[in-house]
User: What shape does this take?
Amino acid sequence: MSKVRVSKRKVCCHGDENDEGSGHPLIYLDMGEEEEIACPYCEKTFVHDCTVEAVGEVSVRQSGLRNNR
Ligand SMILES: [Zn+2]
Assistant: This one.
């Protein structure tokens, strides 16, 4: 299980872009009052960290482009 630091409490996940076998439909996760949330599909844990830029969103967009090829 991997942890990803994100700058926002709302994140989207479509699986691990480094492992095609763990891919899943794109879903949005909202931490609400929590500081972290685990994706119910791939169990990747998103940890809120306001010192990080929106790395998670960037990586999702990049892998999305790759999937469209
Ligand atoms: Zn996921």
